[in-house]
Amino acid sequence: MPALRVCGLYPELMNIYADRGNIAVLRARCEWRGIGFELGASSLGDPLDPDAHDLFYIGGGQDRDQAAVAHDMGATKREPLHAAAGRGAVVLAVCGGYQLLGHHYEMGGEQLPGVGLVDLRTVREEGPRLIGNCAIEADLGEGPRVIAGFENHGGRTYLGDGERPLGRVLSGHGNNGKDGFEGVRRDNVIGTYLHGPLLPKNIWLADRLIELALGIELEPLADDALEDAAHGSAKRAAGV
Ligand code: GLN
Question: Distance between alpha carbon 8 and the CA centroid of its chain, in Å?
Fold first, then answer.
């Protein structure tokens, strides 16, 4: 059996709304199937080996933590992340981490650099934070499915012309509250504003990410009643 090798990026800084719960879910889904699970981490100043992991994960964060992370990411993680994405590793980024996947995050006259893995920019514009339950329809190769969660972001994200969103907003604000799109997906690089944490409420997505990271097909688990109930409740909260 293969092992899923996960790297948490800046786990102590980028963990708003318990986003590290996403990693706990990946671990459980692997272990329940007898798939090995290895967790590494890379934080401020640490090197990053692009070949040592199958899935790179970064959660959300406050603006002040994002500033430290953004500068370090540009200096120490940019090239390894490009190399990892180039060989098909999964990169999953939530909210503040998602914003740093693009070219930059502009806030209050300051421009935080992103790693440029995808063509997008984020701007802290006038107007309220975009807060609330959110549901989107996304297709990760198995037909359209619903991803439901909770968003809370001041930044508005705009995708470049050739970039594809992760999904279409069914309910909530999404990338910028205007264009009806949420997140980004370029091959195995996925960014989204949805917390929840994301994966406990969308177990199909957790399993799909494991499949994409390992290049395998998973058998369903015998009893996902609780996971399905969590998905149903997140969808209902978003009104879909
Ligand atoms: N600080 C960012 C914003 O407000 C991201 C917030 C988050 O990760 N929830 O836009």
Answer: 12
